[in-house]
Amino acid sequence: MADSYLVEPDIGFINEVVKLGGQDVKKCFQCATCAVACPISPDTKPFPRKEMLATSWGLKDRLIGNGDIWLCHNCGDCSTLCPRGAKPGDVISALRAYAVSEYAKPKALAKAVNDPKKLPILAAIPAVIFLVVGLITGLLNFSPGGDEIVHAHFFSTWLVDLIMLPTAAFAVAVFANGLKNFIADMHANALLEGKTDKQKIDAGGFIQALIKVIPTIFKHNRFNECGENKARGTAHMMVFYGFLGLFIVTNTFFIVLYVFKIHGPYSQLNPVKWLANVAGVSLVIGSLLLMKERASKKDQVSTYKDWFLLWLALGLGLTGLLAETSRLAGMAGFSYFIYFVHLMLVWSLFAYTPFSKLAHLVYRTVAMAYQEYSGRK
Amino acid sequence: MDKKYGVYICTGCGIGEALDIDALCEVPKEEGLPVKTHPILCSKEGVEMLKADIGEGTNTLVLCACSRRVNFDVFRFEGCIVDRVNLREGVVWSHPRSEFPALTEEEKEDEDNFDRVQMMAEDYIKMGMARVEKVALPEPYKLDNFSNRILVIGGGITGMTAALEASAAGYEVTIVEKEDHLGGQVLNWRAQLPVGPDYDELISPIAEEKIKAVEADPKITVKTGTVVARLAGQPGDFTVTFKKPGEKIEFDVPYPLPEEMKYDENGKELDAEKQHELYLEYNKGRVDILTIDPNGEKFGAVVLAAGWRPADIEGEQYAHLGFGKIPDVVTNAQFEKIAKDGKILRPSDGKEAKSVVFVQSPGKDEDDRDFEYAGSVTSMVALKQAKYVRQDYSDGKAYVFYQHMRTPGLSEYFYKSIQQDPGIFLTKGQVVSVSGNGDGLVVEATNTLLGEKVKVKADMVVLAAGMVPVTADDPVVNMAYRQGPAFRDIDLFDGYVDSNFICFPYETQRTGIYAAGAVRRAMTIEECLEDATGAALKAIQCLESANRGVSVHPRSGDMTFPDFFFQRCTQCKRCTVECPFGALDDDERGTPKPNPTRCRRCGTCMGACPERIIGFADYNIDSIGSMVKAVGVPSEDDYTEPPLRILGLVCENDAYPALDMAALNKLSYSADVRLIPVRCLGSVNVIWIKDALSQGMDGVFLLGCKHGDDYQCHFVKGSELAEIRMKKIGDALSSLALEEERVAMFQVAIDEYDKIPQIINEFVDSIEELGPNPFKGF
Description:
- The complex is a heterodimer.
- Chain A is mainly α.
- Chain A is built from 17 helices and 1 strand.
- Chain A is elongated.
- In chain B, the strands form 9 sheets. Chain B has a 5-stranded parallel beta sheet with strand order 7-6-5-11-22, covered by helices on one side.
């Protein structure tokens, strides 16, 4: 047998996980009902039992880089069947939040994103940036005239992109840095727990695996395996495709603007605009459904991190649609204000994603790709 | 008493349909006894009929109906001898006509034909009539002196609770405590396990309030710094001599001669006289057990609540744990003392012990055994002490490595609350080693829930020493009984004094002495409180039975007691030695001295006596012997192919009810057996077997309780003794040219009713193979 593993429980870690929604972890008495109940857990070295044990023992190093916590889709079957009420689903969810804030640097920002008391500051940051940069550059016009309401008259597209592009780049950089560590840790953990035979990760193979899992993600296959939270699958899909649609729309118009030099607002008959409207509506309805789901599930732990993301998604969708409709309705002042709020939220989405629950978009995708690549056993 | 007989045959419950009732009625008629039938004897009208006859002077009734185990209250008549002939379960239900057809009219014409079931019923009626002729109405044994005071040995939580409970029920109690203050072990603790809802928090030890209550109770006398030197006499009339611990006095109880002193240097057993001489020398300065201390105090019953001590952890098997070598490896008892004295500090250097590992099982090898005498209490003590670590240090860590975590009943809530402390870590695991590592210790364990070999750093390691009952070391009660001052054969139970843990809690092998608390098994305080109440109630039951001259248990209310015909006693001492309850003492010549209130009326003495001078009013050598003789044994003179006759002596405690259950479940067995219920197989005297065989019966079997380590015998030793006696009878049989296989003994548990028919039938088959008894017809 290999050398013994020196167990050094980190009580601070346990307390953190408890705060993030894993407050029942210590109730676990290792019956393994969760690992059996889980519809998507693999047959060998199944989760979440081992994660429950490691968490109750405060073994942080075994959990942060553990790819399995990302394979979980929080369907809640384990929590429903747990005889001790230890809520493995919520514990794993808390572990993911902890892992995100562990990989996302700077840490202070990660802490702030998960702290409700810091919300006003977080909300103020984009407002201040926009106003300061706008006033310095003079790209902010407080009395946009003209017959037509054109949001760009208020906020120059130059101003928006001057701020948004670096923010997006910042997010990408944070993710890149986090992923580098995450993939290394995940591989080390897989080797330690004997979940893979592959000694090294080769980039080509990994990308192939990534491409292979994309359809699974698009089709929400894993969600459909869930029992307890099945209804959530559709809502999640609406939000997912809402974001995806809006992502496509934004990029399309970006090209249209800078390559073809055609300024908005664009005609409602434009098919891209159709997509934008459908995606916006889908985002709003999807996030409302998810909120309803969460509010009705009394036995599931819902923490700040969950509501933060849901409100952000809803806010994005609503302000986007309102800004558009009020523009069409000719309510100039209101429309400009809403557009401002909308921009703030978009900035928040970019800037805070690597630190928030939405980071699962990246980590889970990578973890699923790694599972596919490593041939998890 | 002039007996006026009456035989009554019930024809209900299928009896009338299956049997020829007119023919049955001929049986008593032939003996000149009046006989009546009734369609439902247990009905109001049936009982009225019996009462009317009793009113006219009938006082000896043979009721041929259902088993004696049912309707016993309906057929109980003051001042009457009643015998219950079991026609229902014993004959018709267990021998249905579908399997044992009645003779047709045509068959009846040939006298060589016979009806086995009818024969069976007729035999049982004859046996019932024979029995009632031989038995008498019992008269209770009344003590000359009677004390209803209760002695409680041990002033811990259990003893104090027993005293308070007995006092609350109106009895005077004396507590003896060997320490110079009340309280017991609890006084050494920082905190104790919960005793009530919500069962999830440690509480302050409850000794103080108990001590106050005891001291304020006018019915309770407390003797601290006192032990029992000797307890003489019998329930209702114990004489107790007290002394200071360690003192030597003449009323110290004499000890039996140790086994090794009974042999000379050549290993030959010394003769009785020489042994007695050595015995007297061995006990020089101590007066004989039969001498009563004139200054002794009188008590009626005893609650033994002497408690426990922590088990020793020593020996090569624990070497890997470093106990004794590493000062920071301590037992749970030592840890408790450290915790009681203040913050938990390391014994080696007085530094704060912030990481403590609790080892519940010695581990090392592959087996998963725990420390000796460890159990649920040590499990929960580890949880309790883990909490101490957390109470003292907010960053403290406590680990519990166990093979078994036992938190029975509502203690589960306690387990849950401890488990949820973020600084307490529990895992099953096998501790491989404890070693020093610079400033601290390292504990290595394998096969843990963590799935691999792990080690943890520790400031202290705590080993789960178990709770040894004090009776494992010392007789404590010091009974002036011929069988010795201690409880017998309790090494079978590791020194715990219970005689049958499951069936008869609190009852020791000595009537009138009831064990409670940790002397009975390892218990938490909560369990001790309940146990003390139970034992106090048992002591009260003993007093309230002894004062009326009836048996306490398990034959509660039995008014009979063994009667000795001393003129014919040969002083063989077999009764004294074999009595499972030490009820008999003997004088210098070896003549037994009965102590009826110590007796449980099992009849083991009656089975043991070679002179057959011991008997009970309603159960004796003659009464059963006459029943055996009443069985008709047909020979070739009667029929061309006479049926076999096999006698079954059946223990009435488990085997007989199992037979009733078999009948109730429509299970049938051979109709050639005749069953006689006996009080215990220990009461079976071999003369009955010899009588049966010499009158031509083909085989005899005994059906009784399981014996051995997990014995189920209600009288502890009965079935075991019977087995020994049956082995000896084999020699006697072969001298008569009878096969040993004609006598057999079988053990059944009460729930094995489904196996009984097979046991009986197989025995009958084996006898059939041997052929009929050659003595038949002589």
